[in-house]
Amino acid sequence: MELRHLRYFVVLAEELHFGRAARRLSISQPPLSVAIRQLEESVGARLFDRNSKEVRLTPAGDALQTSARALLRQAEEAALEARDVSRGSAGRLRIGFVGAMLYRGLPQALRKFQAKHPAVRVTLAELNSSEQIAELLHDRLDFGFVHTSRMPAELRHALLVSEPFVACLPVGHRLARRRTVPAASLRDEPFVLFSRSVSPDYHERILAICADAGFRPEVRHEVRHWLSVVSLVSQGMGVALVPSALHHSALRGAVFRPLEEQVAHSESYCVWRDGPENAVVQAFLRTVQVSTAD
Q1: Taking CA atoms, which of 159, 181, 216, 237 is between 20 and 30 Å from 264?
Q2: What is the mean pLDDT of the chain?
Q3: Separation of alpha carbons 145 and 199, rounded Å
């Protein structure tokens, strides 16, 4: 049984006239007659009674009408869905992200993307960089935001954001009123640091800033999320070096001051699987790149 046969059957069931049905289908009568005969052989029942005066549906043909129309609708909907997915306007998008992306334009990019692609089902998972890479490799994520450019060959990536680290201080700290802060002035302070196990790149970058300023920080607390870093600083439990975007967290009790020195930057990357182009992923990538450039 072919969809073509069902389409011919439905039109003939509506017209009950081979000539009119053939004209609607833009074919001649002989191919229509052959197709109906093939369908009847496939079904194992006569679908039409026909003579020189009229064409009528048999009880079997009448019973087939509803199912045939439903099958044709489903086939059309499946084709439309496949076309929409190929154009990036439908489908699903599984996104992983590091917490700092909440302050680097991810919510705004998601709103823009969903406004243009309402039929795409988006799901989010907050994961560290290594977790996202593993999920992408196992096809459990479609897109990620990570802090590292060290990627397996199976993944592609693009630099999204590069911004300086700044000093994060308790609001009552002796340096909080300065416009800029020398990194060396943090020498004797207790530090709140991003955990090495969560992001070795960030951990090493912060230690390198301190080393360039001539000291090794006294690490009092290690945490897994940037918001936890800022929260502990706001409660007077230490100082920190954080990406400048974290000032958007607006946690009371913490202030952010630029460092006087030129220091290594905090970088975020988009990452996705290499291979056949996924239109939904590419559409989201374009939205993210435009949003972060604004």
Answers
A1: 237
A2: 88
A3: 13
